């Protein structure tokens, strides 16, 4: 099965897929961080968030740098204040950069569905 999946994947992803994947990572981390204990078990949420960060930290330096740049580009283009904040702090919270964004944290970091943004 793994061979079938690997053969079906393109050698290089198209340019449009990277922003979409980066946005999904941010949205998943944001959603998990905003969930109540009755929605998602805290241990599951933390393990998932740590796993995402670990995989991103394993990227080669040039790919990590491109991801950080892409997150800044996505944040600059984002109209929704809450998601813009999440895009700006994602790299720091995952350990990709040492300096935290200087954006003021929203009053409540409640996740907002894409259709409601």
Topology summary:
Layout: H1 2-8, H2 17-34, H3 42-57, H4 61-77, H5 81-93
Helix pairs in contact: 2-3, 2-4, 2-5, 4-5
Quick synopsis:
The chain is an all-alpha fold and 117 residues long. Helix content is 61%, strand content 0%.
Characterize the overall form.
globular
The structural class is mainly alpha
Q: What fraction strand?
A: under 5%
Counting DSSP H or I runs of 4 or more residues, the number of helices is: 5
* Annotation, overall tally of beta strands: 0
Binned, the helix content reads 55-70%
What is the typical, i.e. mean, pLDDT?
84
Low-confidence stretches: none
Terminal-residue CA separation = 38 Å
Task: Report the biggest beta sheet as strand number plus sense, adding barrel if it closes.
Answer: none
Radius of gyration: 15 Å
What can you tell me about this protein's structure?
The chain is mainly alpha-helical. Helix content is 61%, strand content 0%. It has helices at 2-8, 17-34, 42-57, 61-77, 81-93. Helix 2 (17-34) packs antiparallel against helix 3 (42-57), helix 2 crosses helix 4 and helix 2 (17-34) crosses helix 5 (81-93). The longest helix has 18 residues, at 17-34. The relative contact order is 0.14.
What key attributes describe this structure?
mainly alpha, single chain, 117 residues
């Amino acid at each position: 099965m793994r061979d079938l999946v690997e053969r079906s994947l393109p050698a290089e992803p198209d340019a449009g897929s990277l922003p979409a994947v980066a946005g999904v990572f941010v949205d998943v981390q944001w959603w998990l961080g905003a969930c109540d204990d009755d929605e998602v078990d805290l241990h599951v949420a933390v393990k998932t968030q740590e796993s995402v960060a670990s995989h991103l930290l394993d990227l080669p330096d040039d790919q990590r740098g491109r991801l950080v740049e892409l997150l800044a580009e996505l944040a600059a283009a984002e109209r929704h204040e809450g998601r813009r904040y999440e895009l700006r702090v994602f790299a720091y919270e995952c350990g990709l950069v040492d300096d935290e964004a200087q954006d003021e944290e929203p009053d409540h970091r409640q996740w907002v569905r894409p259709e409601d943004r």
